[in-house]
Queue: 2 jobs
Job 1
Amino acid sequence: MDTAFSKEDLAFQKEVRDFIHNNYPQSLRDSINAKRKNGEDLSREDFTDWHKILGKHNGWSAPSWPKKYGGAEFTPTQKYIFEQECAKAECQYVMPFGVNMVGPVIYTFGNDEQKEKHLPGILSGETFWCQGYSEPGSGSDLASLKTSAVKEGDHYIVNGQKTWTTAANHADWIFCLVRTNPDAPKPQQGISFLLIDMKTPGVTVRPIYLMDGSNEVNETWFDNVKVPEENLIGEENMGWTYAKFLLAHERSGIAGVARSKKAIERIKQIAKSEMSYGEPLIQDPAFQRKIAEAELELKSLEYTELRTLAKDSAGKGPGPESSLLKIKGTDIQQRVTELAMEAVGYYSNPHLGSTLSNEFVGPDYAANLAGSYFNFRKASIYGGSNEIQRGIISKMVLGL
Amino acid sequence: MNFDFTEEQTLLDNMVTSFVRDNYDWETRCSIVKTEEGWKHENWSQFAELGLLGVPFSEEHGGLGGSPTDLMIVMEQFGKGLVVEPYLPSVILAGGLITNLGSKEQTNEIVPKIISGDRRYVFAYAEHQSRFDLFDVKTSAVKDGDNYVVNGFKSVVFGAGAATHVIIAARTSGDQRSKKGITLFIAETGSQGITLQNYPTIDEYRASEVIIENLILSKDSILGDIDEAYDAIEEEIDKSTIAACAEALGILEVLKDTTTDYCKNRKQFGQPISKNQVIQFRLVDMMMEYEQAKSILYMAITSDLSDPIERRKAVSALKSRMGQAIKFVGENAIQLHGGMGMTEEYMVSHYFKRATMIGVLFGNVDYHMKRFIDLTQSNIEKLEN
Ligand SMILES: Cc1cc2nc3c(=O)[nH]c(=O)nc-3n(C[C@H](O)[C@H](O)[C@H](O)COP(=O)(O)OP(=O)(O)OC[C@H]3O[C@@H](n4cnc5c(N)ncnc54)[C@H](O)[C@@H]3O)c2cc1C
């Protein structure tokens, strides 16, 4: 047992730190801060600027990808260090849909033309992807999805509706699970994995507003959308297998440990400025205890994640333990948004950025903290709800 | 032992229920919160017509002489409809202060105008550094001949944009955190020296920052005795806290019922999600939290509120426990609705947001838990100084 960084790891840490320091654009930091303060949605550029910079540097936009596809092929320790440093410096995260989700599916199951066509854009951040799995009637029970793709000549004709599609309003491409065989003996057996250009006639995106007023998810409608057959990944009706591979593939970062650490640091800063019972809030024993509890839970999770990563690197393959990382990781993300909101007392109330207010009120650090608490209720719902994840653990780990 | 409403209370309950049903359907409410002012004058006139603006005031002034139970009845129904008109901050809180401290002339003049709906008062107490400590007042009022000059900044004053008058807690003597030395002043919101920065809150109500610069007030504008306002402030905030918890209870009832219905109807894996035991137990837990919250509200309502110690204990017990129920029921209501619960379009998120912000109002769980501990587990004299 050994968790100390090697000399090489420490050198890598410095390399990452320096790279961020020298290359993370101040303009991006300013843009994102201003939008957070005003409660505005991020723009496409806010999401892709940093991705594009990383994409030009040794494949750092794709830490897990093999070198031969242009990725960084970091070791688990390097990945861990990279995430820590990015979070510490509060870098905008790289959207997962291209790099972490569809990319690995393409280089594992796609053909050469598909790899050539799609991987470079994913890596560089030029092509913006979104994920079209969920439908109004198919959330937790994803395999019941109804969006149909019917083969006509060398095309599929796609009809149906996807929903909760994150960033569909920015995306160039969507990877979809579609039903190609409605008569398969099991619903899972009639599903295919299809890449669809969002500019194809018949694709319509409509915004969904979340309870904090943000527009991060959308409805995506398909009305007789003509999709060339070369956009099918792998074999027809094997889509479920690829989707499961995808779910099991990218473990690192799922728990969001580094970001939660940074969030706790920020809460401590806030608690130094806020007063409670005439003293800084950071001295209030009840609040101190809550921060400490969150920190300890996070420390445990950090080591749980490291154990999982170590096991993975030994070639044992990622297992259903990832469900544990998802549940605990999102619990803590939610907890820290709650503590931050709690820290600012009455100043969690103002709804900035709503069309009805034009002046900023309250301390800068309080901006949108309640909004963020409300928004992060999503974390225990998306990516397989935490109930569904518990179901996976009980079945796959405990054998119940 | 009797937890039943009296005949009059049942009538009041029916009246408010039908007001909400007839005037506050979901679409109407959504259109009200999107307007510039964020509340509807006609609703206020209707409150006046129905006698609701007079519930807490004495019959002598044309009110109903209502009890905390009557206010609970009103607020619980308002909670169910997410009624946004500033009844709690103006009628209950500011109205309570005026009744509590006003001279005969002041109450004779003011109370009938509140009851008729011609005036709305709000109370500006919180300051950034004060958090939930009502005695932490920096805003100062300095005597200048026959007048006072007031300077300061009040944070997040609910309903101020809708108010004709604001009651300002200002320091006339003592240290920033001393209970003695706080005086209340009444000013018209449009007075020279008062600037309101109005904004919507995350739960779609309205609040304002109140900036007070060289506001000149005559001594007639003082409410109550100079330097001695603290006890009344604490008492009226306590009573308003009970009313806020009644609103929260109404909200929790909607959240629990809506979620139960949703789970019965939402099908995944070929059956209603309510067929899963984990969902069933969660709904049971939500229901139990609701019942426990209701019980502690009834405990507070039936306690001896005229005894300051009993009142403080009861209110802090209620508010801290209600805060926990809000979190449990609210978060699980969203969770069990899945993606639907996250949306602005669907009403459950609005109930969750309002309930959460009531959790902060007049002190959060930690604040009231500490106050309860201080009252019940340590030397009470320490608190009385
Ligand atoms: C902000 C956000 C972003 C999203 N982004 C995307 C995206 O980019 N692409 C995409 O395809 N999807 C996306 N989703 C959709 C997400 O994956 C679904 O919301 C999720 O799978 C849950 O489905 P549902 O909303 O239909 O809830 P339901 O499946 O209806 O679930 C409702 C509740 O019932 C519980 N439940 C359901 N079945 C069971 C069971 N068998 N046992 C116990 N409990 C159960 C759930 O845990 C949940 O609490 C996003 C969702 C959100 C909120």
Note: The pocket of flavin-adenine dinucleotide is lined by residues A 130-134, 139-140, 164-166, 217, 378, 381-382, 385, 387-388, 391; B 266, 268-269, 273, 276, 278-279, 335-336, 338-339, 342 (CB under 6 Å).
Job 2
Amino acid sequence: MTESNGSQRSVGDSPPRVDGTGKVTGAALYVDDLPVPGAWHGRTVRSTVPHGILRAIRLDADFDWSQVVVVTAEDIPGRNLITLIVDDQPALVPLGGTIRHVEEAVAVVVAPTRAAALEASRHVTLEVDALPSIHDLDAALAAAVRLHGDDNVQKRLEIHRDDADIDAVLAACDHVVEGVYTTGAQEQMYIETQGMVARWEDGRCHVVGSLQCPYYVHTALKPLLALGDDEVIVGQAVTGGGFGGKEEYPSMLAAHAALASLKTGRPVKLIYDRGEDIAVTTKRHPARVRHRLGLRADGTLVAADVDVLIDGGAYVTLSPVVLSRAILHATGPYRIPHVRVVGRSMATNTPPHGAFRGFGAPQTTFAYERQMAKAAVRVGMDPIAFRRHNLLRDGDTTATGQVLSGSVGSDAVVDALEQALEAEPPTPATRFGTLSAPVRRGRGLAVCFHGAGFTGSGEARLMGRATVAALPTGGFEVRSSSTDIGQGALTIFTQIAAQALGVDPVHVHIAQASTDRVPDSGPTVASRTCMVVGRVVEQAATALRERLETWGRSASSAAPAASTASTASAPPTAPTPAPGTAAGAGAHDVLALARRHLDQVGEVAETRTYEPPAGVAWDDDTYTGSAYPVFGWAACLVDLAVDEDSLEVTVERCLHAIDVGRAIHPRIVKGQIEGGTLQALGWALWESVPYADGRVANPSMTDCIIPTSSDAPELETILVEVPYAYGPHGAKGVGEIPMDGPAAAVASALEQALGVACDELPLLPEVLQRLVAQGGAASIGASS
Amino acid sequence: MTEWIRPPSLDEALAARREHPDFMLLAGGTDLMVGAIARPAPVGVIDLFGLPELSGVSRDPAGGLRLGAGTTFAALLTDDAVRTELPALWAAAREVGALQIQARATLGGNIGTSSPVGDSLPVLLALDAEVEVASSRGTRRLAYDEFCTGYRTHALGGDELIVAVHFPADIGRRVQAWRKVGTRRAQSISKVMFAASVERGADGTVTLARLAFGAVREQPIRALAGEQCLAGETPDAALAEAVAAAVLTDIAPIDDVRSTADYRRTVAGRLARRFVLSLA
Ligand SMILES: Cc1cc2nc3c(=O)[nH]c(=O)nc-3n(C[C@H](O)[C@H](O)[C@H](O)COP(=O)(O)OP(=O)(O)OC[C@H]3O[C@@H](n4cnc5c(N)ncnc54)[C@H](O)[C@@H]3O)c2cc1C
């Protein structure tokens, strides 16, 4: 790709993050830091039973309620719903309504201070007729308690590669590898807990919070409050991490804060403390995947039959889409001519599970990569050679019939991994303590892909928009609803826009993501921000520059009479034109032109709408076609050591080669990969969210363990760039793919180290102890 | 409003303690601040952090090390005498929380909380430590296993302060060991801790044995059956198995959100075995 010259070069560099100084110095205002004069504070009153009928909300007669306002379902002016995919989840359970999980919101108490609100909430009791409840997949399948339809199936999705009878095909295979893989819930553990501020002004409801998707909240609040598009304004405050946890759940906080503000006539702050946040917000879906793989004696894959179950929890929320991504990734980056995948999302009396980096793919990736590891052993092939033998390549067809064309980095990531393996490994950290036990070592591999952007027809439906405008104050502004949640969106958009405009990045400002100021670019999810919205930003910026240049050339005196803002759907034409290459259009010219245009004509802005590349077509009914516009590819290798006494695991080496298309900001991209890899190692080895009767049993950072930097190996991250013609400068999604592979690599390494099948996550030392005791490495724990 | 007293000397601290037995004693605050927001504010605070007479490492007249109760784990880690004579305590200090916590957390606070998962506490048992407590009535010394009386309880009187911890003069001669098995490598609550020390005769027999565990009972304990099994014997693989089996009768671990009874029991036995093997 051509770069613009000298000082304007930005894409491919790693300039300081635009939000970095504010965050490091403490100047950045997170939602709880926002000064809100006169605000009262809300505290949510929640159910303590997992299932029942709400009969009464009782206020302790001995408590002084004069300074407290209690908000219930009766205070809802519109529909009592959190609007998402299916209209099943109330904002507050009404009297006579059904409570479907512990910690379900029933009321919000509002008081002048946070402490007073907390105290008041302790004086509210709920009268509930308890009902029998179910808390896991087996109970949901048994359907003795029915929460959703007759069978508790919230959503069923199927993929059939062909009409073949899969059982017959498998029966004819030389080898059939079969396994059942279970994975647990995972807490996002963003560093900033969820929070929201609401206030009403001129009959309009203003909400600002810690969130990923302002327009999701906007969509949810309108029917709840019976307000129109312009009467609800949702903005993002500086947000301390999301990982999917702030995709759908913030609508719940926004609903409660808005209702509380409406009733009190004051601004209301609703900030969750850590315990509440862990106990009530969404987690990664627990899953169980049964996977049958048929192959020929020479290691060629023939058939896959996969059954995917995810625990959706008490309401449908985003589970159908999580399930979709789960099944679309269920056979991995491999050529398999015969495929059947059946997925079901099951209802349980557990707080709804939801979006979390990877969005269903990590669960099925764990299953298929464990299968590949076993299959390689079965046919006696080297694990890398086995993968190479079966990998999808450019021109190959996926399980849904998608013919891959362009940016297929499957071989490239494996090559990169093999090359990196030859380098000197980093020295592993030593253990503390004065007693050391012998260790068992193992090595595991995972190769995977991850669809970038929305699933299926999602992007076509979303029609994400972005605007680039010249500012009266000088410089340019990018307006999109894509949020920076720590992942670097502000910086990357700045780079992309600056380069397309041909100006220095200091002249580009990113507007706050507030629904009254930015168009709907679609949600900040699905590894789509840089690839999809970044592309639209680039197109809008390019259009603006071209428009200014045209204006400057054609009418240095005669101003054009046309409207000053334009919108267009730019049909994607690859490759991106190199900015600043138009004759004579230097940086100064564009800035000066913009200033002149503002003086002589007025404001000028360009808006563009995303259009999927030609040939990306998807059929929701048959589940066939292009599941994703493009895939990222990854190869991960883990070396680990297991302490023979404690079965504690030390990850000694973790290499991760990922095809990102193009790294717009290599340091941020590496940061994403390192963070995602550690999150995946955490899911594999440390992170456990046990439930007791549908209630999170460890709702604190003390007990809900995530790895620390002391637990992390020196991560060896390798960026592979196989450009994607329709992404900005070749970039494609990177946010989620690092989450997919490492867990399977860890499990395979542990299997090698201990000689026991490791088919469940998390592989806590307690689990390893159970597996070892059940069989396998008999000598573990014996004298050595 | 909570009253806040920051006594400049031990005498004044003891006077404040006598006068305000209901005030909270605050050292580094790393235990007290956790969850403080959910508890009613204390009526008053006696802030001991940094009080000179409670801080630092010295030698008592008998030649043993005396660690002031207000000494932080960070300070213990930089002390040469602690590192060479109390390697088990040094190793335990290294694993308390992480650097930020070590900078505030004090030995006296660990003892004051008296939690079954206090990392220094099994070390105090294994090294025959004594706790020095004082009030305006005077000073007394208690062996740590008398001081700790149960789950998060201890023998401190309502007008007393923990002043120091004393170790035997010849403690440096013992072979010492420490192993923490926690939920992760740092900022971790222990699932099993093991501290041990032995003295050996010229012929290699164990003449004195101390085996202590944390997190496997309601309070830190000495594994007396294990010690009996080890004392007077010459360590070898068979003895290691015997000691491992014996300690299982000393402990009564539970299932909780951090681990399982089975895991704790199994690992406790293996750590004892590993220690004996290391002597063989
Ligand atoms: C993030 C984090 C990680 C932690 N990790 C560990 C760990 O790995 N291992 C571990 O053992 N602990 C850990 N802790 C707990 C804590 O740090 C230790 O128990 C520490 O030793 C407490 O010391 P402090 O000075 O902070 O005590 P404080 O919190 O000030 O006081 C603790 C108790 O001791 C009493 N007290 C303090 N000084 C005296 C005195 N001189 N006389 C009488 N009573 C007194 C107080 O009244 C209070 O009851 C951790 C805590 C946190 C927050």
Note: Residues 261-279 of chain B form the longest helix (19 residues).
